[in-house]
Amino acid sequence: MVPADAMEPTAPVLPRDGWTASASDEETASENGRAANVLDGSNATIWHSKWSGTAAPLPHTLTVDMHRTAVVSALVYQPRTNSANGRVGSYVIHVSADSTSWGSAVASGTLGDDATAKTLSFAAQGARYVRLTATSEAGNRGPWSAAAEINLLGDPGSPASVVDLSRTGWTATASDEEVSASANAAANVLDGDPDTLWHSRYSGTAAPLPHSITIDMKSARDVSALTYQPRRSGANGRVGAYTVTTSTDGTTFGAPVASGTWKDDDTVKGATFSRTVSARYVRLTATTEAGGRGPWSSAAELRLSTPANPATAGSWGRVTGFPLVPVATAVLPNNKLLAWSAYGVDRFGGSNGYTQTAIMDLGTGAVTQRRVDNTRHDMFCPGIAVLKDGRVLVTGGSNAERASIYDPATDAWSATSDMNTARGYQAMTLLSNGDAFVLGGSWSGAQGGKNGEVWSPSTGTWRKLPGVPVTNTMTADPAGPYRADNHQWLHATSGGRVLQLGPSRQMNWISTQGDGSVTAAGTRADSADAMNGNAVAYDIGKLLTLGGATAYENTTATRRAYTVDLGTGAQPRAARTGDMDFARSFSNSVVMPDGKVAVFGGQSYPVPFSDATSSLTPEIWNPATGQFTRMASMAVPRNYHSVANLLPDGRIFSGGGGLCGDCATNHADGAVFTPPYLLNADGTERPRPVITGTVPARVANGATVPVTTDSAVTSFALVRAGAATHSTDNDQRRVPLTFTRNSATSYTLNVPSDPGVALPGSYLLFALDSAGVPSKARMVSVG
């Protein structure tokens, strides 16, 4: 069931009064196809590119002039409703302050050939002009473009590529504060404690609105956003309408750099500045109380953000639109990314027997769409395992007993035999012998009894494991098996064994030999159950677990992270490592070539299909220190039904979220994060080592592999090509390689002999220099 807040825009629709629209060309001879029609409030009138006489060729551009600078974060495109002709297919979006300097595109992508409204998101920023460029017609019916209506969305409170400034030494003052009846001084907004607060004076005669609170950073800083955390202890004083102004001297404050109205709830709010400003003082002025309860204002915490330094916080590329919500993804051996949703591009339900899929070419960025019918399988909410030969096995979901295989070598889908047990939300992993293991999955099919079974690639059939009952591995979710056996964290090891290390606090060793067996492996240190958290293997026999919650939804997530070391004994050793800065459930984690782990998205209070309580700041965990470091913030929330994957160039794809039909939280897009190991402070790319010469396409476990590079390197790593859905990617793992240096740029690599260490399948082979900068990967099949 879709929550009510999923139906509300995450950013306000900007008022269009005074706006104008112009186009590269428009049809005025044979119909009223003027650009102005996209702003008239009627879907019955349209802009259409010139088609009478000689049609104007693609591309076509449509530019909206707001005649004022505003923070804008998305363009909402409504295709014409009376015909398919002219529906925009591939597109690019630019913004400008002066209509002369347009800079790099802020978004691009491919739209589905249908009449539904499309929200094309990008990083929130100040602009006067927004330009949509259509580079293809969705159905390739002709050289045409059309639009019924164009809307723009304003500030979602989540500017991209910013990081919080350190508040050490800062002070705060207010127009008034309550210090008689309670200790609600302005200084509380900087103390790091969300349970203390500033409150306007209410004892005696309450101070009237407006109220202001001013932060003194003690020196000039570049500032681009303010974050407001409402009080936790009650609703009174939540800020409604507000303005933000800045000053260099504390006396003269200029025109507002941000203004708006915040929703009457306790979620953290943001205000993106219309431009980055250099200031010492930043003032938040509350002009209304959000609920109209009284003449009060309050705040638990205030933070200020600055544009991110790419060398320490990484950077985000433009938002790429997909013709579907990418709920599941797999990195393919041919430098492509496979994605799929359900029977619909933006919704699910029933067992329809087909799936909407898309493939992104990682070299060109082009995205193509296909509906897969031949396997009679709606692959929404599946289990996924990447097979030894690079094919992708997808099981269950909406068609709960079905199993399908995608072969990247032939770009073809085929059916394999049905599972013995119908499942949805199950967990899968490849085994060391090349078989695939599945467990759990009570979301679809009957609830409970989702015991283990194994698929053999040699026979294409499933074998039950009566000795692997799911009950031993479940959480204590109050919803019972329907939620308690979902999205398990599985790590394949030697001899066909699997460590089930979550989300239940109890860990278990699973044997898949014969009838199978389950043996308790202790608890994950002091962790509670952590549903919708995840685990990733960052080194040989070493995993990091992140976040999660004690129930599937509607409970507080955790900031905690744990390491699990398989060691050499019977019991793995689990220990708490540094906490994340943000509590996360529904997040995704990715291991990088250097062994660090990046975590993206998630919510502090998990609610499916909602963007509330989103964690928009990624973090990277360093195994050498056990600490997390904040990265540049994301432009789009990534929560339930989102994904993340390491790409062959060492960057990371993060996308998806939603799939709730006609709601505001469908995110049919993704963006690529460039980690700081690739960047200089000015955003340019650091010099990379290059793997030169020939690398074998397939190597056996225990083989030695000669490799040459263009410059000296200090380490090599294999990272298995992953497949992600619902926060889990069980086949993802990093295997650092031992090697012999033959010369300054010639090496012999040693592939682990144990297939439980170097699991069979497709790997990204990276070389890293002494500064930790990785090469672009070569694809290698192991096993």
How do you describe this structure in short?
This protein is mainly beta and 783 residues long.
Mind explaining what this structure looks like?
The radius of gyration is 27 Å and the shape is globular. The chain is built from two helices and 55 strands. The strands form eleven sheets. Strands 1, 3, 4, 5, 6, 8, 18, 19, 44, 45 and 46 form an eleven-stranded mixed beta sheet that branches. The protein has an eight-stranded mixed beta sheet with strand order 47-49-53-52-50-54-55-48, with no helix packed on it. The mean pLDDT is 96. β42 and β43 (627-630) form a beta hairpin. By secondary structure, it is mainly β. This is DUF1929 domain-containing protein. It comes from Streptomyces anatolicus.
In whole angstroms, the N-to-C terminal distance is 44 Å
Count the DSSP helices: 2
**Strand content bin:** 35-45%
Gross morphology is globular
Helix content: under 10%
Characterize the largest beta sheet: strand count, sense, and whether it forms a barrel.
11 strands, mixed
Kindly provide the radius of gyration, computed on alpha-carbon positions and rounded to a whole number of angstroms. 27 Å
Structural class from helices and strands? mainly beta
SSE map:
Layout lengths: L19 E4 L23 E2 L11 E19 L11 E7 L10 E4 L7 E17 L11 E2 L1 E5 L8 E3 L6 E4 L23 E2 L11 E19 L11 E7 L10 E4 L7 E18 L11 E2 L1 E7 L2 H4 L1 E2 L2 E3 L6 E4 L4 E5 L14 E7 L5 E6 L10 E4 L5 E4 L7 E5 L4 E5 L10 E4 L5 E4 L13 E4 L4 E4 L16 H4 L4 E4 L4 E6 L3 E6 L5 E7 L10 E6 L2 E5 L14 E5 L7 E4 L11 E4 L5 E4 L18 E4 L4 E4 L11 E5 L5 E5 L12 E6 L16 E2 L5 E2 L4 E6 L5 E6 L2 E3 L8 E10 L2 E5 L10 E8 L9 E5 L1
